[in-house]
Amino acid sequence: MSEWKTTRIRDVAEVYDGPHATPKKVEKGPWYLSISSLRRGQLDLSKSVHISEVDFPKWTRRVAPQVGDTLFSYETRLGQAAYWALEAEAALGRRMGLLRPKRGLIEPRYLCYAYLGPQFQEVIRQHTLSGATVDRIPVGEMPNWPILLPSLETQRAVLSVLNSIDGLIENNRRRIEVLEEMARAIYREWFVKFRFPGHQDVRLVDSSMGRIPEGWTARTLNGIVSVQSAGVEPASLSPETPAIGLEHIPRRQITLDNWGTAANQGSRKSRFQRGDVLFGKIRPYFHKVSVAPVSGICSTDAIVLRPDAVNWGQAVLTISSDSFVVHAAQTSNGTKMPRADWKVLGKWQVAVPPAELAGEFTALVRDQLALAETLMFENRRLVELRDRLLPKLVTGQIDVSGLNLEAADAKEEAG
Fold first, then answer.
1. d(CA 282, CA 295)
2. Radius of gyration (Cα) for the chain, nearest Å?
3. What angle do CA 122, 80, 279 make, to 5 degrees?
């Protein structure tokens, strides 16, 4: 441990905080980052929104994230941080700051891991100020806070271990994206363009929703899904029962990968089963629609939908489609916090194929999403492994001096 020394943040990094106001959010444009996107070293952009090109210069006048920065929360989600690795325009959100490493004095990504390590987390706890509404840390004092660091060589050895795990996590995440896009592409072929297997021999006929393949029927979503309204008090359940809030449902991602437990829930919740579709009804334009990978309870701000077995695939891809979510946003009620209304959405018309064809599509989709789900659970295990190793690695409890960094780098480049 002789090479491990305690220094001050100011000696290895510059500290910045973000704006103390909130801009108008838009559908497209530079990222406006949220502290909800900070997730144990990873950045989940599905939790962030966008600002306009016009507002962007104003919100980045003080600082804008650069590759190598560590983003952190200085209010409410204290201790959370994430490494910024994107070549993309972004502005810090409220309650967010960043550490900009001084190159040559610290490895940029190591700074993020050190921030998440037990030594610096304890420093954060010691400096936390309890307010009337939220806890916070004084960003202005952070440059003087102590941080435990090893030599640059040891930092690189630690990174070779943690980066390998993070690389696997990122690879799995990309595979999940590909699998979901493949499912969406097949859906568009079959149910939008009507280019399903054998379509060449099927003529189009008139229906209440326009021309559809002969033998198909024009129905509403209510005809192939049912709303599940059973409620339960969390206190009556096992504390380990999975609990899903709107904050857990990712944007534009069918594979749900995060949840809490009933132990932390207060008010009455809705029940759901594995395979149900959870549709976030508050601000539906956030596109929070996912399939539950477990059974449990969820916020009543999510509509629990249970497709019938044969038409499960069509129901899932329809409800998560862009066109349906746009319809949900356009027909929602309320100004500040619009809510989707299933009494309206359930009347959305769908062309339903014969049972045999519907079952074939469901089998295809289940295979794709089952693999995505398997990768999601693998990522959860990898995150747990990384989180167990990280405290020991960034405090010198695990000796990394024997690692062959050249071999590790060569393997990474080859991969």
1. 22
2. 24
3. 145
Taking the C-alpha atoms of residue 373 and residue 369, their distance in angstroms, rounded to an integer, is 6
- Rounded to whole angstroms, the Cα distance separating 389 from 140 reads 31
Q: Give the mean pLDDT of the chain.
A: 92
What is the bridge-based pairing of β-strands 13-17 and 25-32? unpaired
User: CA-CA distance, 378 to 384, in Å (whole number)?
Assistant: 10
pLDDT at 281: 95
- Three-class secondary structure of residue 15 per DSSP: strand
Q: Is 228 exposed, middle or buried (0-12, 13-18, 19+ CB in 10 A)?
A: middle
Q: What is the DSSP letter of 61?
A: S
Q: Tokens 């950045």 belong to which residue?
A: 43
Record the tokens describing residue 68, joined without a space: 């190598």
DSSP 120-153: HHHHHHHH-EE-SS-EE--GGGGGGSEEEE--HH
Exposed e or buried b for every residue in 342-374, given b needs 16+ CB within 10 A?
beebbebebbbbeeebbbbbbebbbebbeebbe
DSSP single-letter state for residue 396: T
Q: What element of type H or E holds 102?
A: none
Q: Are 291 and 254 in contact (CB under 8 A)?
A: yes
pLDDT in tens, 48-77: 889 999 999 999 998 999 999 999 999 989
pLDDT of 1: 53
Contact 291, 306 (CB under 8 A): no
Please, what is the angle between helix 108-116 and helix 152-187, to 10°? 90
What tokens were used for 350? 């769908």
- Asked if 224 contacts 315 with a C-beta cutoff of 8 angstroms, the reply is yes
Q: Are 193 and 371 in contact (CB under 8 A)?
A: no
Within 232-354, residue ranges assigned H as helices are 312-319, 322-330, 342-345
How many CB atoms lie under 10 A from the CB of residue 246?
16
Q: Which two tokens stand for residue 238?
A: 């096992």
* Secondary element (H or E) of residue 8: strand 5-8
C-alpha 154/C-alpha 367 separation (Å) is 43
- CA 84, 86, 87, 88 torsion-angle sign: negative
Residues paired with 72 in a beta bridge? 81, 97
Q: CA torsion angle for 152, 156, 159, 161 (degrees, to 10)?
A: -130
